[in-house]
Prior knowledge:
Number of strands: 17
Signal peptide: 1-16
Radius of gyration: 18 Å
Region (Disordered): 235-277
Largest sheet: 9 strands, antiparallel
Order of helices and strands: HEEEEEHEEEEEEEEEEEEHH
Number of domains: 1
Shape: globular
Keywords: Signal
Helix content: 10-25%
Strand order of the largest sheet: 1-2-3-4-5-6-13-14-15
Amino acid sequence: MKALLFFLAATPMAFAQNCPEQVGKYGNGIQYQDMFCRIMVGADRKDSQSYRNLTFTDSGAIQVFSNFPGTTNSNSTGARVFYLFPKRTKKGIANSDESGLSLTHSSGANFKFDKNGRVSSPDMAIKVANDINSQNKSGIEIESYSKGIVIDIGYRMGSTPLTKKDGVVTVTDKNKKKCTMINSDLHRFVGGEAELIYKTNEALHGFLSKKCPGLDLSDLIKPIAQDLKVVKAPAQLGQAPSKDLSGAENDSKRERKPQVDELESLIKNLDSKSSQK
Length: 277
């Protein structure tokens, strides 16, 4: 649940939107869930204090959440956030079977998770560390994206980097040229939430062409491909798990409002504990 709370506490909630929900399990206990307009993929963590999961959103964001041995949230959790642009399609689970899972990002990039939950992509230079610890920034580096740009919001212990106003942000084009700025150049902050200022390809291109004139931003203004489609995975693969990644019961008949209230209560409790440390 901590990974989901990181994102829900930092980004505008999408409970009112008409977003499909599905939960499944494949391979060696790898679970996925498409809930609250966000897709989460991660290993079953019952027997380990060290685990990593990824969350994909409609805004183009990818959060890498990691948990490792420690006594408090501030020294046992961390998050790294990336954006991929341009936006080309809707994110979605493209395919899933016992050997792995394929996911389409809103940029059109394809991500593949093997049966052990290790992520890779044919569309980008991505490095994945075997170890999960407090020193390797959640252990995933997206170095470049062959069809656009990568925006690295950075890493933060105990919370999400999205809400750190003065955090250093790095934009990298497909030729691995870089440009840096601060987080408040890209996000506005309202009520503790971070909202992307430049939500469309055109708006982001207009900003970056002035802020980072040396980057190749041509993909942001190319015509959007019309043939990118997302094929939804079956609702169930054999027996769907009775619990989601957070351990909360998956009850399709449960009313939306109590679910929202429960999450907001958990977020407040997490914030309260963090402020006391």
